Amino acid sequence: MWVEIFCGLIIYRLCRRFFWEDDLLEIETSDTDAVFSVANRLEKLYGGKAYVGLRIPDADTGSRQNIDVVLVNKGEAVVISVKNFSGFTTINGNGSWTCEGDGRHKTVHHPDPVAEAKQKTSILESYLEQRGVPLPEGYLSYKIVIPHSKFRTIHSSYFPPEVLTHDQWVHMKPEPKCLFSGWIKGAFRGGKKELQESIQEKLNFTLSTAPMWDRLQLKGSKYVRGEFLEFKGNQEDTLSLRNIRRSKVSHLIVQKTSMFGLAHSKLQILYCARDYRTEGSSSSEWKEVTVRSSSELLFQPENSTKVRKFKLSSVVSMSLSA
Question: Where does the NERD domain lie (predicted)?
């Protein structure tokens, strides 16, 4: 019997290594996937640029505040807090939320999402001012989006106007490029075009260079936020990858595998040199390197103390914060 168990463990490890690939099955990505899904849909609905996974310094606490999405559009910027809640939800007297029957736990209590979004918006506004981008009153607002299909409301009339429940979220329609929905109002509608464009340009540059989580896009449309640490693998491959570090590279893309037998399959890695030139510069320089598909990268996910290994063959792309 022990022989059968031992052989079974070996077969399991081999199958896991060659077919399931590294830590993919152990990573819970649903909440992060929801954030990127919301950001992508907002860009399609309203245009503009969505910045995902910002880590804004809070001068009062000396820590960094995580902001899911900031959507920058003509005349307005909106802080989007994505709450992937499920179950029947009520709002308590102190503003906290209670979700019951979410499929994982019987009852889950959440701090007041509206107060949290308001605080993060204030912190972002202070950060922008420190970086020389003071925003006019009303330019920056906030919303809470709940995209989970199993989210249900109890006494929905009690939900604040800043909250978009799942039903409201799925029924949002694309807007003409020059128009805004009821919650994308345009703080400078009717103002000077030059002033609008100047603020938007400075805001986009500042947010694009703000601290944010490193980002992994995995096969199967899965996303992981956290911190990239290093590459592991054959010495020749790690030497080839030595120039891919955050001081030099902002983004990499993993191309299709070239097969030369299972043990010698290759991956083409395209990486984009970080551009430290002046504001408004948009040119990028891409370089290429070829490594074995067995090469790995070490990544520490957000809110986790455990370092994960991912084969490069399971990675679609990676973005690195400055």
Answer: 30-147
CATH code, 86? 3.40.1350
Residue 89 has pLDDT above 80, yes or no: yes
**pLDDT score at 24:** 46
Domain that holds residue 63: 30-208
Are 319 and 250 spatial neighbours (Cβ–Cβ below 8 Å)?
yes
Among candidate residues 179, 208, 237, the one where a domain is terminated: 208
Task: Give whole-number Cα distances, 302 to 63, 179, 253, in Å.
Answer: 15, 36, 21
What is the maximum alpha-carbon separation in the chain?
80
6, part of any domain: no
Global confidence as pTM: 0.79
Question: What gap in Å lies between CA 321 and CA 251, rounded to an integer?
Answer: 9
Note whether 127 and 248 are same-domain residues. no
Q: What is the pLDDT of residues 288-319, one digit of tens each?
A: 999 998 899 999 998 888 999 999 999 999 99
Contacts of 88 (CB under 8 A, 6+ apart): 99, 100, 101, 152, 153, 154
- Between the alpha carbon of residue 285 and those of residues 88, 240, 244, 272, the distances in Å are 50, 18, 13, 6
* Three-class DSSP category at 130: helix
Q: Could you identify the residue written with the tokens 């019951």?
A: 100
Assess whether 130 and 95 both reside in one domain. yes
169, 106: one domain: yes
In a 13 Å sphere around the CA of 80, the CA atoms on its Cβ side amount to: 31
pLDDT for position 175: 62
Residues 200 and 224 in one domain: no
23 Cβ contact list (under 8 Å, min separation 6): 308, 309, 310
Tokens of 310: 């991912």
